[in-house]
Specification:
CATH superfamily of the largest domain: paralog of FGE (formylglycine-generating enzyme)
CATH architecture of the largest domain: Alpha-Beta Complex
Order of helices and strands: EEEEEHHEHEEEEEHHHEE
CATH topology of the largest domain: paralog of FGE (formylglycine-generating enzyme)
Distance between the termini: 30 Å
Strand order of the largest sheet: 1-2-5-11-6
């Protein structure tokens, strides 16, 4: 781990260029909000080892408040103002880390038990539209939810255990803070995970697996047990039962879905497992 000293005594961890996988490729319905799985290509960047303290916040903004506690009761707007005050000290972007940057560095980061850290990305319903080059996901949401952010929350008692959660960033909350990254500026179109799934393909797949795992067994079992007449007379009940069984299996298992990423030329492609 390499440390870099920044202005105002800020202590950064240097993270080398790397790739990070986010999301799930498991096809069951319970993973729908975590799909699609995608690979993010990150350039080298700097990230604060610990969230911003009250003293650091005050000094950088020219205030006269002292304290070694972490800065909480903060909003998105106030964090953006803080980052703007630091931009003159760097040639790169100064902002909160994205989810991919946080994941790449998490083994070297400190976040006290019971604290939550606001990240740069807007909180969305899934990973469709996620950036593949590590840029923040901003501007996809409208209305009240546009102020919510993807966040990392530390376990109340177990150090080093974190959960990815959604936190309102449009109002101050206790024990909700932030840290910053210094990341290279990107230009040009933003490479994203495709916004829409292949609906026709998904419907065909669901019909196939519901038939194989639900409808066909529902009719086959009574025939094998010598109740062939029921397969004819009670077909409606068997069909309904087969559909229910097929839908239940879909909650826990379906074939893997595609993983998205960039090829060496920067084109968006489906990756092979």
């Amino acid at each position: 781990m390499e440390y870099v000293e920044g202005p105002f005594g800020l202590k950064f961890v240097k993270v080398d260029s790397c790739e990070v996988y986010l999301g799930e490729n498991r096809g069951a319905w319970v993973y729908a909000s975590e799909r699609p799985r995608h690979r993010v290509m990150l350039p080298s960047f700097l990230i604060l080892e610990s969230p911003i303290t009250v003293s650091q916040y005050s000094e950088i903004l020219g205030l006269k408040i002292k304290g070694d506690d972490l800065k909480d009761m903060i909003t998105n707007e106030e964090i953006d103002h803080f980052c703007s005050a630091l931009e003159s000290h760097f040639e790169e972007d100064v902002r909160r880390p994205t989810q991919s940057e946080w994941e790449a560095a998490k083994g070297d980061l400190k976040l006290p038990c019971g604290w939550t850290e606001l990240l740069a990305d807007e909180a969305t319903g899934n990973h469709r539209g996620a950036r593949l080059d590590g840029r923040p996901r901003i501007g996809d949401m409208i209305g009240p939810l546009s102020g919510h952010r993807v966040s990392q929350s530390a376990h109340p008692t177990r150090e080093g255990v974190f959960a990815c959660v959604t936190t309102p960033g449009d109002r101050p909350l206790p024990k909700v803070g932030f840290r910053i990254v210094v990341s290279p500026k990107r230009e040009g179109p933003v490479p994203k995970v495709p916004d829409n799934a292949n609906l026709v393909s998904n419907i065909k797949s669901e019909i196939f697996w519901t038939s194989i795992l639900g409808i066909i067994p529902s009719f086959t079992i009574p025939i094998l047990r010598g109740f062939s007449s029921y397969a004819l007379d009670g077909w409606a009940n068997l069909l309904f039962g087969g559909l229910c069984a097929g839908f239940v299996t879909g909650a826990f298992w379906r074939p893997k879905r595609p993983t998205w990423g960039l090829d060496p030329e920067g084109n968006i492609i489906q990756l092979k497992d």
